[in-house]
Amino acid sequence: MPPVNIRILLPPHLRALAHIKGELHVEVAGTPTVRSVLDALEAAYPMLTGTIRDHVTQQRRPFLRFFACEEDLSHESPDTPLPEAVVSGKEPLLILGAIAGG
Prior knowledge:
Elements: E1 4-9, H1 12-18, E2 24-28, H2 34-44, E3 64-68, E4 71-72, H3 84-87, E5 93-97
Parallel strand pairs: 1-5
Antiparallel strand pairs: 1-2, 3-4, 3-5
C-alpha cells in the first residue's frame, strides 16, 4: 500500500505548541491507525512527543480524545484501522481536549 496523506485537527493548545495554524497533514505508510498517525505526527513535530500519549506507556493522555467520522475512537485499540473516509482524505482525524468539571 502506498503512503497515505492523513488530515489531522489538533486542539488549540497543541497547535500553538507546534506552531501550526489550522489543519495539518501527515504521511503514513502501511495501514493507517491511530498509532501510525501519532508516530508520523510526533516524527514531523517532535515538540508534540509526550503531549498526546505518555512517553513510556504510549497510552492516550487523560482529557484527550480521538474522533473520526463522528465516532469516538479513544477506547479502540490504537492499532485498529482508521475509517475509510479518513484514509481517503474526506474526513480528518480529530484530536480534541475533553472537558471536565463539576
